[in-house]
Specification:
Aminopeptidase; 405 residues; alpha+beta; 11% strand; elongated
């Protein structure tokens, strides 16, 4: 890869006063080649834009105010596009600093004035055009702002617009039955270590055989989605995202698992009861697995249509707040859950033990959980807490299993 195309995130110092403010506005530490691209590129694009306007003949009926709006907005947009494409502008405007996100969103919001001027002055008071394009501008800014940065600056660049990296299991008999509870101990039970093992249907778990659950190591996303949607019915993060709506939760898992299926090397597991009905499911994402831009866009569209803008925005917010915590080289246990009617029978613990034993994860396995009561349960499986995070109203524990030594 060409090293001159990499972004160096160290921001050089700037001068005090007005000169420093201008330098920061344009991007501190701009190189000579970047300045040449901006000047020459903006000039060339301005000529092409002027030629297009002139050949179309639409300018003949413009008033002086309309000419002024078109010229000013044209120069600002052309210069802005080229400036924002430079490394110096990227590292400044996408820096991690207090208030940086608010400043970026306010900067984008200020461009609503461009749309208002075009719609009300140039287009003769077209309020519909102005409102539609304002909505597109602001919603796109929110999506981009809460999308994790790709490349070497992030360990898991937007892995998944889905799936977000929280996990859940259900069924510990020591706790009130809740699809938000998680596996409990290295003894492979679904309860605390002081509790007796609760085997499935009175016998040991196996992957096949009459009277025992069948373990499918390559189920379709369509089979896993409803299992996880049922398991997450009271899980705190999913409740926050879906607003407690069953329809939104089911649509969210359908969209998320459909995207997860596009990831190379991703693993899905499904446990079915003796009657053949699925009772537990789990999803894992290998290190650095990233869905394509088309897959991410498709997920966003499906989530927006099926769950609404609140669910989309909160998912992106959760991802933004948790993704960077994943250790380099670690797999991510995206989800693991048991349907409520199968709770307390050992299904989840057995499934988790299988995942820990069979996943080739020398870098360990990472997960996050928004249910504080389950942190201790994961500890008994060998997970350690890396950090506690605040995401909206949630307190999220980022956890890591180091792998078998």
């Amino acid at each position: 890869m060409r090293t001159d195309l990499e972004i160096h995130w160290e921001i050089p110092p700037t001068s005090p006063g007005p000169l420093g403010r201008l330098e920061r506005f344009m991007g501190p530490g701009k190189s000579r080649s970047e300045s040449v691209v901006e000047i020459v590129g903006a000039g060339g694009c301005a000529v092409l834009l002027a030629a297009g306007v002139w050949s179309s003949g639409i300018h003949r009926d413009w008033s002086g105010a309309q000419w002024a709006v078109v010229v000013l907005i044209g120069l600002d947009l052309l210069g802005g596009i080229l400036t924002n494409a430079t490394n110096s502008a990227k590292r400044w405007y996408h820096r991690q600093a207090p208030g940086a996100r608010r400043a970026r969103l306010l900067f984008v919001g200020a461009h609503v004035l461009h749309l208002a001027a075009m719609g009300l002055v140039v287009l003769g008071g077209d309020r519909g055009w102005t409102l539609v394009n304002t909505a597109l501008l602001l919603s796109a800014a929110v999506v981009v702002e809460f999308t994790p940065v790709g490349g070497s600056s992030a360990r898991r660049p937007w892995p998944s617009i889905p799936p977000p990296s929280w996990s859940t299991c259900s069924g510990c008999p020591c706790l009130p039955p809740s699809p938000g509870s998680r596996p409990s101990s290295s003894s492979s039970s679904w309860c605390a270590t002081s509790c007796p093992r609760r085997p499935w249907n009175g016998g040991a778990m196996s992957e096949s055989g009459a009277g025992h659950p069948a373990h499918d190591t390559a189920p379709s996303a369509a089979r896993c989605a409803p299992v996880l949607a049922a398991a997450f019915v009271r899980e705190p993060a999913m409740t926050w995202i879906s607003g407690g709506s069953d329809r939104a939760r089911r649509a969210w898992f359908a969209a998320t698992l459909r995207t997860h299926a596009t990831l190379r090397g991703a693993r899905r597991h499904l446990l079915a009861g003796p009657d053949g009905r699925p009772v537990a499911a789990a999803l894992l994402t290998p290190p650095a697995a990233v869905p394509s831009g088309a897959a991410r866009a498709a997920w966003a569209g499906r989530t927006l249509a099926g769950c609404g803008p609140r669910a989309l925005g909160r998912t992106l917010r959760y991802l933004h707040g948790t993704e960077a915590e994943a250790p380099a080289g670690a797999w991510t246990l995206e989800f693991i859950g048991v349907v409520p009617e199968a709770a307390g029978r050992g299904a989840g613990g057995r499934l988790l033990d299988h995942l820990l034993a069979e996943t080739p994860a020398p870098g360990g396995i990472f997960l996050t959980t928004a249910d504080a009561s389950n942190v201790g349960l994961y500890h008994r499986f060998g997970f350690t807490t890396l950090r506690r995070l605040a995401v909206g109203p949630l307190e999220v524990a980022a956890m890591w299993w180091p792998g078998r030594r």
